[in-house]
Amino acid sequence: MKYIYTLLVCLFLPILSWSQDYSSNWEGLFSYYNIVDVHTSGNRVFAAAKNSVFSYNVASKELNKYSTINGISGENISAIHYSTNYNLLVVGYETGLINVYNYRTGKALQVIDITEKQTVSPNKRRINDFFEIENQLFISTNYGISVYSLSNLEFGDTYFIGDTGSQLEVRQLIINNNTIYAATQGGSVRYASLDNPNLIDFSQWQQTSGAENIKNIIEFNDKIYAVSNANAIAELQNNSLSFVTQFNGNVTNLAVTSTTLLVTYKYKVEAYNNQFNRTLNINSFEFSPNFSSAVLINNQIFIGDQSLGLIYTSINTPNAFNYVSPQGPLLNNAFNMETIPNELWITFGEYSSLLNPYPLNSRGVSHLINDEWINLSVEHLQHARSIVEVTIDPTDHKHVFLSSFIDGLVELQDHQVINFYRESNSNLESFDPGSGDLRIDGTTFDSNNDLWIANSKSDGGLAKLKNNSTTIQVYDISNIISNPPATLGLTKIVGNNSGNLFIGSSEDGVVGFETSTQTFAKVSGGEADGNLPENYIKTLALDNNNQLWIGTVRGLRVLFNPNSMFTDNNVAAQEIIILDEDGVAQELLANVSITDIEVDGNNNKWIATESGAFYLSANGQETIYQFTTANSPIPSNNVNDIEVDDSSGEVYIGTEKGIVVFKGSATASQETFDKVRAFPNPVRPNYSGMVTIDGLMENANVKITDIEGNLVYEEVSQGGSIQWDTRAFGKYKVASGVYMVLITSDDQLQTKVTKIMVIR
Fold first, then answer.
1. Is the pLDDT score of 120 beyond 70?
2. Of 429, 342, 436, whose CA–CA distance to 385 is shortest?
3. 126: helix, strand or coil
4. In what residue span(s) does the PorZ N-terminal beta-propeller domain sit (predicted)?
5. What span, in angstroms and rounded, lies between the C-alpha atoms of 567 and 314?
6. Distance from C-alpha of 581 to C-alpha of 591, rounded to nearest angstrom
7. How many whole angstroms separate alpha carbon 368 and alpha carbon 380?
8. How many helices (H) and strands (E) does the chain have?
9. How far apart are CA 49 and CA 309, in angstroms?
10. DSSP 368-392
11. Long-range contact list for 510-518, CB < 8 A, 24+ apart?
12. Over the stretch 636-695, which tens digit does the pLDDT of each residue have?
């Protein structure tokens, strides 16, 4: 009866699907510096970063990246393996998910059998290691061992090898002389014959004597060795572990060649010969190491560091390091971004939902400029912590301000700190005088190029740094927010073309400041007052019609005339009402936490939420796109920020697990028609997407006709571009031929003609 129960528990039904390759419309901007595992095959090194993988060809120096863009999951990776025989890259995750990337087809398989296994609790599904033999892949997990067929991509048996068939954590296994040896936690080495037909019966597994809690097991010099949690290495002889030597440090990984044992520690790497004499000790660095694993190819040692990425050195010159990881941001956790044409700034600081920056982090910032990454360390930024926002000077793009939600305001010029505004040297106010706890979040430039600053938890909650000055002027906000130091704080700040400012708050809704009269006003409260679903405002955006879009922790609102709050005490924000599929009216994004709102060149709205990214029409009535992990390469549904490059239409979507770029088409309006273009052009038979016409002036009239002058499409641009689905007014696809695009400006003073060729 026991045998039958074990069999039923261990069976896996195949649950898999092929992931989509998104590389035609998306790009990944992942960090490749936090290396968790390194694997080698021939002349190639495979390195797993936190949620992406890259390979490096030692001979050709070629780098290849694999991420959500290629169908790889955005979850946290725990182990990787490359099968030379099947040309497959296998990626295992902490959740139990497995990706199998097929190099021949360029497709990734999502294998979710383990993640769906009800008899295995989530904390036991972690993939720890892979071992390949013939056509089978033996998978070490926190519950035991599973077998996966590389020939038909299906699971075989699963072995629960603990006492009485319990789930026992297996860190690693090897197969030697037709015997499986498993390094276990809570026991010693468990072993059984590979040919035993009843391996699913726990009683068929034996246990060695000697050391317990084994984390590594290897075959070296035709012998089997195991390393315990106590970092002692023992040789397996006659089913007993015999002590060999004690390693001096916490071993994180072992790798072997025919003559060398490579031992990785967090702070060093050592090599031993067959007699366990140490032949190499790499322990002197110009950086602070945080090693996870290392491998040896010929005379080169490739080391995975959890901060610096993949580095390598030579046995002959062990203190000369080269850096291999692809360029990318410092980290994947993008908290805030700011973009201008061909540039992107990223911060990684953060605060909780209660605007609490603790525990404090020190992470630096990243700057992408013309496809090159410049990463500024926290030391370079004079140890400014919890940097939460970037603001670029519109008149000088090399002039940038960084908001620290604990230390103040950092001013950069050409990536160098030129000023650091703190409580001790400026009028910015700490919520606890003398503490230096200075919480700066939202900042924005006005038409005079003065910088306005949201100073949380202080009576002087609004401040201004005048252009070409280092003097900060403070405005008392306590007459509109009662006892500001006792509140959670202020969030974002935006300014309109009237010169007025609008500030998000944690407890008082939207606070307005009329600069001409230096008076405050606010919109807050529920239906009977300001009609906000929640007074906690996380983000604000002014669209091309000067309407204020308000993102709260419980939904979306719009102030169609935000200036009216200064003259009318009864101003109320409005919800966006849409019709669902059944024609029933409902509120758009009701009860959804809104983290960011961005307006593109067509006045459409990008909305970042904790449930993915939404792309809405200008009035919010139509959802054009909704991107989640299920239908796009975004690595997490928790979207922190979105930025739109108005020059290219590219959309940067920043999540807690990385940044992806959607190759959008909505560009900013132009002053002339000199840069009008249509793409793709020609439209070939296998193309099913939209044709984009950009370089337009705002409100330009665009007519598309066939060669005989028959009108097939007409639209007025909201920004700098329109899209055409190659159909005649949305009905039938137009035939092959040349189509004329006739463009007229809103005042009818400028015209432009271009052509599109359609090939069916």
1. yes
2. 436
3. coil
4. 45-206
5. 73
6. 19
7. 17
8. 1, 65
9. 8
10. EETTEEEEE-TTTTTT---EEEEEE
11. 510/537, 510/540, 510/548, 510/550, 510/559, 510/562, 510/565, 510/573, 511/477, 511/480, 511/481, 512/562, 512/565, 512/566, 513/462, 513/475, 514/566, 515/446, 517/566, 518/475
12. 999 999 999 988 899 999 999 999 999 987 888 888 999 898 988 999 988 877 898 989
Nearest to 29 by CA among 402, 400, 323, 373: 373
Tell me the CA distances in angstroms from 502 to 141, 180, 451, 539, 573, one per residue in order: 52, 66, 14, 10, 14
Q: Calculate the CA 469 to chain-centre distance.
A: 37
Q: List the structure tokens of 145.
A: 């061992």
- The SS3 assignment for 756 reads strand
Residue found by looking up tokens 């959670």 in the block: 488
49: its two tokens = 């970063």
Distance from C-alpha of 689 to C-alpha of 733, rounded to nearest angstrom: 12
Question: b/e for 431-456, b at 16 or more Cβ within 10 A?
Answer: beeeeebbbbbbbbbbeeebbbbbbb
Degrees to nearest 5, angle at CA 252 with 250 and 253: 130
Phi and psi angles of residue 175, each rounded to the nearest 5 degrees, phi first: -125, 120
pTM for the model: 0.89
**Order of all β-strands in the sheet with 291-297:** 291-297, 300-305, 309-314, 322-323
SS3 556: strand
462-465 and 472-475 as β-strands: parallel, antiparallel, unpaired?
A: antiparallel
> What's the confidence (pLDDT) of residue 735?
94
- Nearest-angstrom CA–CA distance, 667 and 698: 10
Cβ burial 611-649 (10 Å sphere, 16+ → b, else e):
ebbbbbebebeeeebbbebeebbbbbbbbbbbbbbbebb
**By three-state DSSP, how is residue 72 classified?**
coil
Q: For 58-87, give the secondary structure using H, E and C.
A: CCCCCEEEECHHHCCCCCCEEEEEEECCCC
- Are 147 and 140 in contact by the 8 Å Cβ rule? The answer is no
What is the rounded distance in angstroms from the CA atom of residue 100 to the CA atom of residue 344? 32
Number of C-beta neighbours around residue 94 at 10 A: 18
Query: For 236-245, 460-469, 501-510, 677-686, which range has the lowest pLDDT when averaged over its residues?
Result: 677-686
Band of residue 11 on the pLDDT scale cut at 50, 70, 90: very low
User: Within 13 Å of residue 638, how many CA atoms lie on the same side as its CB?
Assistant: 10
Among the listed residues 102, 104, 108, 81, the one whose alpha carbon sits nearest the alpha carbon of residue 92: 81
C-alpha distances out from residue 312 to 60, 286, 304, 544, Å: 15, 14, 9, 51
Neighbours of 203 (CB within 10 A): 14
CA 179 to CA 199: how far, in whole Å? Answer: 11
Residue type, 169: E
State whether residue 2 is helix, strand or coil.
helix
What CA–CA distance (Å, rounded) separates 475 from 500? 14
- Cβ pair 454, 441 in contact under 8 A: yes
Going by their DSSP bridges, the two strands 189-193 and 206-207 should be labelled as antiparallel
In terms of Cβ atoms closer than 10 Å to its own Cβ (0-12, 13-18, 19+), residue 363 is: buried
Give the residue carrying structure tokens 């990785």: 264
Q: Which two tokens stand for residue 257?
A: 């060649």
Sign of CA dihedral 563, 564, 566, 567: positive
Q: What count of residues does the chain have?
A: 760
